[in-house]
Amino acid sequence: MTGSKRGGWLHAFGPDIAPDGDSPNRKYSILSYTLEFKNTALKEIGFKHRESGLIVQALKALGKERITSEVIEKIRNQIASEKCGKILKETTTVTGWVYDAIKQICREG
Question: Which InterPro entries match (predicted)?
Answer without folding.
Answer: DUF6088 (IPR045738)
